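Case study B.
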Amino acid sequence: MKTLTINGKNHTIEAQDDMPLLWAIRDIVGLTGTKYGCGVSQCGACSILIDGEVVRSCSLPVSYGIGKQITTIEGKTDNLEYLREAWEEINVPQCGYCQSGQLIAAASLLNTNPNPSDQDIDDAMSGNICRCGTYPRIRKAIHKAVKLKNK
Amino acid sequence: MESIQNMSRRNFVKVFGLASGGLIIGCQFSSEKNIVRIDDGTTFAPNLFVQLKKDGKLILVCSRSEMGQGIRTSLTSAIADEMEADWNYVSVEQATGDQKFGNQNTDGSRSVRTILEPMRKMGATAKALLIAAAAKKWQVAETDCKAEMHYVINKNNDKKIFFGDLVEDAMKMDVPTNISLKDKKDFNYIGKTLGSVDIKDFTHGSATYGLDARLPNMKFAVIARCPSTFGTVKSFDKTATLKIAGVENVIELERVKKPFGMLGGVAVIASNTWSAIQGRNNLDIHWDKGSNGQYDSKKYMQKITSRVHNNAKVAPPTKGNVNTAFSKASQIVEATYQLPHLAHAPMETPNALAWVHDGKCEVWAPLQDPQTARADAAAYLGIEVKDVTINVTFLGGGFGRKSKPDFVIEAITLSKKINAPVQVVWTREDDIQHGYYHTTNAQYLKASLDKNGDVTGWLHRTAFPSINSTFMPGANYAAGWEIGQGMNNNPFDIPNTRYENAKAEPFVRIGWLRSVCAIFHSFGINSFIDELADKAKKDPLQFKLNLIGKDRIREEKSPHPLNTKRLKNVMNIAAKKANWGRELPEGHGLGIAFYYSFYSYVATVVEVSVINNKLKLHHIWTVLDCGMVLNKDNVLNQMEGASVFGSSIALYGKITAKDGAIEQSNFHDYKMTRMNEIPPIDVTLVESDEAPTGVGEPGVPPVAPAIANAIFNASGKRYRSLPLSDHGLV
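Model:
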């Protein structure tokens, strides 16, 4: 038995040590907001925050998450809330599938860089693929979230 | 006011009482008891779209699948607009796959084009009933009443009744005969911007996609499929697989020989997805690679290229005599273009959860065409269609892949075998290696220029495995509709033209991908006319406008025949937006391309730089004329996305096969453009009162040739094959 702390709540689960956090979170804990996209850290759909920093949950074993604070898209942080507001105002998503990972990656960016430039955004977000092509709106929405936060 | 003609009072509407005390309004095309018919010749079948509750809550049903095009918001907003409903009361319910909702195939950029008016009628009918109910209550004429923001108002004294308070009376009303649709100037939602009804679910991770469907005691399955298309299992050893924690069963699956039948293989069933993946990795399978096991896409490209360099089957219409034109030419220009297979790669891989029990089957899956899935499932299980329920989840992207529900057959087969709910999960590797691929294509174009630089003759040959081959094995030539996606019906005014189609046999499953044959024919045609402009020593924009010729509406059997004026208009706007003809920085270039597809007009200008043989996109301007716009921001978002999708095709899109197996496997080798590669995208929508036409697909075809033309303008180098990564540019 292992205990994961996700969005402030403890979940005691049974899972093999090498099971990636992604599948433990989705199939065993039952939080499906974190998405599978590639399984090999190429697309960022599975992004989660561990102690405030973005990681690819498809490529880290469940054992890595023990004793740490995990935040998924179902969770709440200050930056996530501003980003959500900006995403909603700018109507960023198309199919929406990658947006969990996009929001989490953006939250991690704002955690370390409160006022990112376009270049900072591109650097931080280019690990996240959006097949629908919402990149220009994501860029815009991150700037917007900064404005909302500073208001 | 546009009156709805031929509507029979007796036949139009059925008012149903709801158990929960609401009003459902619908109309049905095929007549059964209590049901009615609209005799207006629309192709729209039985449907039930409006549910009004006593507390005013309004549930509107969306019959088309949501895959990012915003259809759940746009179609329902049309109902709400005509009904004069307050959008704040609206919630949207997704229709299950069922004939009673009319055609639900979400494909071909046709949802708004074909069912906007029927949806508006749903709303208008609801409004008429509510007005009739209020008029009766007030003992006034219906013409003395109007509806506004969820109320019916008595025009004589400004008294008003809330929609919810009219539910019971409205249920007793016969449908009034004077139903009419609103004027454009009175629209509340149509043509405006409405945020997605699902936005909060998207930003909180609470939208349920197929992969998120859950049932108690469900199992997860991952399937090993033969590397070459239609290969079969010779033998397999499951010993190591069964030792994996969580693995519960290993089941061999036989191929189902239908267009959307499953490929077959060996399925691993487990208590979670990861165990199923691990279990599959540990299978030891010997495959019979079958007749497609020799497929080598590189050699195949040489083969179809040599075929387009020779005479091929004529694809009418032929006009004049190209050979005479060529013999009298001042200049002859010829070029060959080659494009690879593509995979759809929606971010959510194909998947389905099925539960087959007690002679019934229920499915939860991301489906573009739930009715086909339902019919296929019923036929496969040998049960009646009514015993199959198809729940349409959100689609994490579709692009045509999720129109082909082979994954549903896999899930129902496994569920039936183990008597438990089973979710079949395609890994990304499965998705890239076992898809219904966008076809691969070779084209040869030859044209004659006279001494003025005008085009006098045009020969266009194309070869590509046809989508028809997926439906009719042995179909080795293109279907008429495939060639008709802009190849033998280009918009040019050229006196001598000839179109030919060469044989191309398939070695993988061929399917349609966002904008289909327009992808490669747009690349060939738009690249070639750019080459012609250069040879004619003319400005590419002026040369192309001239080639389209005078304003005319093409004589063709089409609901929306090509109007050259609209085509030239989008080109002129795009050029103006990009400030065409301006002085550019060193190493920069501008390229323009345009295409008429899905009855819409698009022109795209791209600014690139090529410095030290490295390509950078600097700006994309794209202009769309799709007639009347339903939801403006949705359309803008679709066009921005189409520019990104088209950039991926231009820069990276390539699926290749060797020894029958697809060589790419995941996003590291089947790449797509990322945020740092995408420049600002400037979208312009042409204001128009014309009938609405396609939006989801038409933005894609001009992008890749506009980039190639811009590279030529920047560097003088012409790239005639994609992707550009093959040329070391990215």
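Residues 78-150 of chain A form a domain with the DNA polymerase; domain 1 fold (CATH 1.10.150.120). The remaining cases will be described in the next quarterly update.
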